[in-house]
Amino acid sequence: MFRFEEPAYLYLLLVLPFLAAFYLYSNYRRRKSICKFGDPELIAQLMPDVSKYRPDVKFWLVFVAIGLFAVLLARPQFGSKLETVKRQGVEVMIALDISNSMLAQDVQPSRLEKAKRLVAQLVDKMQNDKVGMIVFAGDAFTQLPITSDYISAKMFLESIDPSLISKQGTAIGAAINLATRSFTPQEGVGRAIIVITDGENHEGGAVEAAKAATEKGIQVNVLGVGMPDGAPIPMEGTNDYRRDRDGNVIVTRLNEEMCQEIAKAGNGIYVRVDNTNSAQKAISQEINKMAKADVETQVYTEFNEQFQAVAWIILLLLLVEMLVLERKNPLFRNIHLFSNKK
């Protein structure tokens, strides 16, 4: 299999026809000028050391060298092969709460933004693991199926905001159940669910869902975002806060007791997310403790660089061009390599 690493440089080859045309036109003008002075055959006899073909040979040697130089810049490569690579890792499903209460700013810059940054840091620490993402509020749906494509995971993460789900609430149980069904069927691999939530307006069923996940060998960890003292929920586009029917400002508080209960039922850990990176470090350590199984994937090896051979050819062409003189060499007067003389 053959390819060019930098194919844009091949556009330099488009210059070569213009260069050749310019040289042929110059030769034509030169012959026309010689004809003005007299008969070309007579003039050739008067200049026996002038070669008719050597300048052409020198030009075409440089011409080919320039073309190969464009190929050299494009970095020709070939020689790839398909091989099976074994990697060890775990599978992690992240269930992220995107209810309106996650907009509270008792954790800076907000609960949701802090949670998204934590997930991004967690993904950055992964190597051979697989990660998937679920968002939930009053309902839950898969934002990213489980994958080892960390770049896509971070791209999907950036687009998450409360507007993705119109139904408000905190359906942690639905999120855990969906995450449990989202893992691959591979056996022997460690699996974990990470629920990131403030736990407010809990709709029930979360503890039962965590126990059901544990029975299938899945660990359920909970990261609680926010402060027990609570904070108001900003209204986007205004300087005001969300209010209840009586006009009172709504204060949302972290429900640590409920988060701890879910983590206990899921045989996992509970960590409060504050304005430090301690939560990310704690959950990363917990994932590293899990059993890592071999995951077989087929990948292409790197292509072999072939620019060295092209560089040697260019060097040889330029060396020959330097050795070929425009005038006939007196030592080889009787050798008519570049002449039609018999």
TrEMBL record:
<feature type="transmembrane region" description="Helical">
    <location>
        <begin position="307"/>
        <end position="325"/>
    </location>
</feature>
<dbReference type="InterPro" id="IPR033881">
    <property type="entry name" value="vWA_BatA_type"/>
</dbReference>
<keyword id="KW-1003">Cell membrane</keyword>
<protein>
    <submittedName>
        <fullName>von Willebrand factor type A domain protein</fullName>
    </submittedName>
</protein>
<dbReference type="InterPro" id="IPR036465">
    <property type="entry name" value="vWFA_dom_sf"/>
</dbReference>
<dbReference type="InterPro" id="IPR024163">
    <property type="entry name" value="Aerotolerance_reg_N"/>
</dbReference>
<dbReference type="InterPro" id="IPR050768">
    <property type="entry name" value="UPF0353/GerABKA_families"/>
</dbReference>
<keyword id="KW-0812">Transmembrane</keyword>
<feature type="transmembrane region" description="Helical">
    <location>
        <begin position="57"/>
        <end position="74"/>
    </location>
</feature>
<feature type="transmembrane region" description="Helical">
    <location>
        <begin position="6"/>
        <end position="26"/>
    </location>
</feature>
<dbReference type="Pfam" id="PF13519">
    <property type="entry name" value="VWA_2"/>
</dbReference>
<feature type="domain" description="VWFA">
    <location>
        <begin position="91"/>
        <end position="290"/>
    </location>
</feature>
<keyword id="KW-0472">Membrane</keyword>
<dbReference type="InterPro" id="IPR002035">
    <property type="entry name" value="VWF_A"/>
</dbReference>
<keyword id="KW-1133">Transmembrane helix</keyword>
<dbReference type="Pfam" id="PF07584">
    <property type="entry name" value="BatA"/>
</dbReference>
